[in-house]
Design a protein that fits this description.
The protein is α/β, with parallel strands linked by helices and about 525 residues long. About 30% of the residues lie in helices and about 20% in strands. The protein has helices at about 1-20, 40-45, 50-65, 75-90, 185-195, 230-245, 295-315, 335-340, 345-350, 385-400, 415-420, 435-445, 465-485; strands spanning about 95-105, 110-115, 120-125, 125, 135-140, 175-180, 200-205, 225-230, 245-250, 255-270, 275-285, 320-325, 350-355, 370, 405, 425-430.
Length: about 525
């Protein structure tokens, strides 16, 4: 069932994205138009780093009091959600808590990966979210399409097809060695399990920015242990298998609760046109391994500060503004997906844009803007996304600040929105990717180092914030929110916010780190 669902999901999403015109294509009777120039200075002055940090300190204290985490499904998340609700209700918003069931996951012990023979070696490894528990010792068998060194441009498709695997022996344990790339981690592991493997090792692809120790989510629970490796360690193990038999041991100890409960916090302005709603989102949960003060306390604290200060200004928005604090993003965008899936057709049609802020204070940051027009990456966002990108890049240009495009790669909560044709955009300061020499020349910081060296770790605490990044990104976020809230002009030359007709089928977005 899981294999069939995964295959159907990929087909549906691909079909949907081909049906929704991109911002670089014709939008039917409407041609692209600019949003109004809105003076956001009052809001930007009111939204301060000190105000954002006040919320971050509360998130840190909540984590400290709850085992060092604010992960969905834990008391730390519940306390974070209650804090956000209390603040938004006090600011005058209509606030509701949207609860839902999700599969909770956490590690109970550090994973182990070691070569037993011919050369005993221990490797640094990481457990994939939704890995099963187990202690497996067996022959390591790579897929038949591993590429070491990797190709210069095209991706690696290791493990994406059942034919990539040599069928495992039914009488002896075996471990599959798979290279990252092209399809979801869940598809790769599904194919490995179907081929008879008892554990899976996935190593990084080897492309620039894809060399470090690999971790991610499988999207759905599996029964077999699944761990990650850096490209260098994976390449070494692959080379060893080409010289002769290699035996490895994989050990994981995990917990999965299929009936865990968490929530989204949704706060809507009391004024504004109810037929045109801008959804401003950030995920509130952390990973289980840490407090998540940058990922994504920074985004949550920023939109909470914007919401409070917008209310305090008492300038009624023309469009309704809905601030959404998503739960279970770290488990594959489950909160935002649940929200989109449960909207009625009429409610879905009233949402004209989504802004997403996931990590805006990374220590070694770059000012990334989602590539709405698809000029630097595929795919482009739905019609209207180009104008949102332009709104943000123009703001940075006017401030004398550089910005870089970042693709709609499915790593955050815009995914379910663009999958149903809603224009989207937002900001991102970088995660585990490595800053280039060119970026270091423009933005400062350190080349060859991750944008956030504490990404998904216990050290993502209050000391893991770059205040310059927080200042610059929060100004841009406030400007974008206020512009979309106040503009009279829409995304098309007739002044409308209306989108082209959406597909009849609403796909589940493949999202987050499952597509890696």
């Amino acid at each position: 069932m899981r294999r069939l669902a995964t295959a159907a999901l990929v087909v549906v999403l691909a079909a949907t994205l081909t049906q929704v015109p991109t911002s670089g294509s014709s939008a039917g009777p409407h041609d692209a138009a600019r949003l109004d120039d809105i003076n956001s200075e009052a809001l930007r002055d009111a939204v301060t780093v000190c105000g954002i940090l006040a919320h971050e300190r509360v998130f840190q204290r909540i984590a400290n009091q709850n085992g060092g985490t604010r992960s969905s499904g834990t008391p730390g998340y519940e306390a974070s959600a209650q804090y956000v609700m209390n603040r938004l209700e006090a600011a005058g918003y209509r606030v509701r808590e949207q609860r839902f069931i999700f599969p909770f996951f956490r590690n109970l012990a550090e994973p182990q990966l070691s070569q037993v023979s011919p050369t005993p070696t221990d490797y640094e490894t990481a457990t994939f979210t939704y890995s099963g528990s187990g202690d497996v010792t067996g022959d390591l068998v790579p897929t038949n399409d591993v590429e070491v060194p990797p190709p210069a441009e095209s991706g690696v498709s290791s493990g994406c097809e059942p034919s990539d695997f040599t069928p495992a022996s039914p009488t002896a344990p075996a471990v599959a060695l798979i290279q990252r790339g092209f399809c979801t981690f869940g598809v790769k592991v599904d194919n490995a399990v179907d081929a008879g493997y008892d554990a899976v090792v996935i190593f990084n692809e080897g492309q620039p920015g894809r060399t470090e120790l690999l971790s991610g989510t499988l999207g759905v629970p599996f029964d077999v242990p699944v761990v990650g490796l850096s490209f260098a360690d994976g390449a070494d193990l692959y080379a060893a298998t080409q010289a002769g038999p290699v035996s490895v041991r994989v050990v994981t100890e995990t917990e999965t609760d299929l009936d865990a409960e968490t929530s989204n916090i949704i706060a809507t302005s009391r004024k504004g046109n109810p037929d045109d709603v801008v959804v401003v989102g950030a995920h509130l949960d952390s990973v289980a391994e840490g407090p998540g003060i940058n990922d994504n306390g920074s985004g949550s604290a920023t939109i909470l500060e914007i919401a409070e200060e917008m209310a305090a200004l008492k300038r009624a928005p023309r469009q309704k503004v809905r601030f959404a604090f998503w739960g279970a993003e770290e488990f594959n965008l489950l909160g935002s997906q649940h929200y989109v899936d449960t909207l009625s057709d009429n409610a879905l049609g009233r949402i004209f844009a989504n802004l997403n802020f996931d990590m805006v204070a990374s220590p070694n940051y770059v000012r990334f803007v989602y590539d709405g027009d698809g000029s630097d990456s595929d795919p482009a966002g739905p019609p209207g996304s180009a104008q949102i990108e332009e709104l943000l890049t123009d703001f940075f240009d006017d401030e004398g600040l550089a910005s870089d495009p970042t693709p709609f790669s499915g790593r955050s909560d815009y995914g379910p929105f663009i999958a149903v044709g809603i224009p989207a955009g937002g900001l991102f300061s970088g995660a585990e990717g490595v800053k280039t020499e060119e970026q270091a020349e423009v933005y400062g910081g350190e080349a060859g180092v991750a944008y956030d060296p504490c990404y998904h770790q216990a050290c993502d605490d209050f000391g893991n914030l770059n205040l310059d990044a927080l200042s610059e990104m929060s100004d841009a976020a406030a400007h974008a929110v206020f512009t979309l809230a106040r503009t009279k002009n829409g995304f098309f030359d007739d002044g409308s916010f209306r989108r082209p007709a959406r597909p009849d089928v609403r796909p589940t977005y493949r999202g987050h780190q499952a597509i890696r």
